[in-house]
């Protein structure tokens, strides 16, 4: 049975909503897929290697008046607890949220890609980028699930 492990960070509930939408769709359409979901603040370094495919999800945040960072929980997880992790070519999907009120609307995508490149990960599909309120964008999430499923054939 193929497995997907999702690590996400959500403080306002928006990223959590996207992850739940994705999980619900996959559970109804991919009966042979096992999906596990974990909050970034609870994740440890070894969790990054769980699953055949890893999915990281976060919004783009501002810190100390500087825009373009990952959510504080995801940032702490990747830069501290999982800073020495080796993804060893693991296929990784990315979900990033952003807000068009800011100049670096979805720069979290770049932060995720920097992490993947420096930790031997392999982006297996184009990132899902949700700009502004994710409520009402569920169909975009559902359509992206098809591209995510391609990560399993490329990981075999």
Structure description:
By secondary structure, this protein is an alpha/beta fold. The protein has a single domain (3-149), classed as 3-Layer(aba) Sandwich (Rossmann fold). 35% of the residues lie in helices and 27% in strands. It is built from 4 helices and 7 strands; from the N terminus they run E-H-E-E-E-H-E-H-E-E-H. The chain has helices at residues 14-29, 72-81, 108-118, 138-155, and strands at 3-8, 34-39, 53-63, 66-70, 91-98, 122-123, 128-131. Strands 1, 2, 3, 4, 5, 6 and 7 form a 7-stranded mixed sheet that branches. A hairpin with a 2-residue loop joins strand 3 and strand 4 (66-70). The longest helix has 18 residues, at 138-155. It is globular and about 45 Å long.
């Amino acid at each position: 049975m193929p497995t997907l492990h999702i690590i996400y960070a959500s403080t306002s509930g928006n990223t959590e909503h996207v992850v739940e939408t994705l999980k619900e769709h996959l559970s109804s359409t991919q009966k042979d897929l096992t999906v596990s979901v974990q909050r970034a603040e609870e994740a440890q370094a070894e969790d990054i290697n769980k699953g055949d495919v890893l999915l990281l999800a976060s919004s783009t945040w501002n810190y100390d008046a500087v825009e373009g960072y990952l959510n504080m929980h995801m940032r702490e997880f990747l830069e501290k607890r999982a800073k020495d992790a080796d993804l060893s070519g693991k296929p990784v999907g990315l979900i990033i949220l952003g807000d068009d009120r800011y100049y670096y609307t979805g720069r979290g995508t770049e932060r995720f890609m920097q992490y993947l490149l420096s930790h031997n990960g392999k982006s297996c599909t184009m990132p899902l980028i949700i700009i502004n309120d994710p409520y009402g964008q569920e169909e975009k999430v559902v359509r992206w699930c098809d591209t995510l499923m391609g990560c399993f054939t490329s990981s075999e």
